[in-house]
Write the structure tokens for this entry.
Amino acid sequence: AAQYAGPLAGITVRAAATTLRGITSATLTGALRFGDGSSPDGAPVDILYATSGSAFSPIATVRCAADGQFATTLDIPHTGTIRARFPGDATRAPLESSSLTITVVPSVALGVSSRRLRRGRKLAVSGVVSPAREQHVTVLLHRKVRGRYKRVRNRRAPLRRGRYLRSFRPARPGLYRVTVLVPGARARAYV
């Protein structure tokens, strides 16, 4: 048991949240420990990032505190994997943490041209998707019939620089529900 009594070498990385909605910042924390018990004060730690199918590349470098703790905040534009790496120095070998997956799901904003809809009048549905990875959004229009919503229209709207616009001209009066869908997110409005 005496042979295992010393400090263990290693590096860890954790995220405050592993699922991010829209393009938001990820807060990463971690710790660096050396097997010889020396202080990691000021030691560099590279934060590595890779998307699906790509190689890891450094996106930031942070310095450790005297107790080996480090923290940083980064903008993560797409779903990917994060690792922390100590590159090594003259007396200590390189260390690399296990992988941590950060999932970025889109956020959808929805606006309608009118809160009340009259028969025969045009209803414009517009909004923003962030991040805009898709080519289009799906806009669904449902009308309330006997306590349930019945689909009236199902249209695609092209995304241009993250924005979309689609118009409808319902033939019947009533309460309508507008739903905008992208993979991973949706938004609703009632008119």
The CA atoms of residues 180 and 187 lie 5 Å apart. The chain is about 0% helix and 55% strand. The mean pLDDT is 90. The two ends are 71 Å apart (CA to CA).
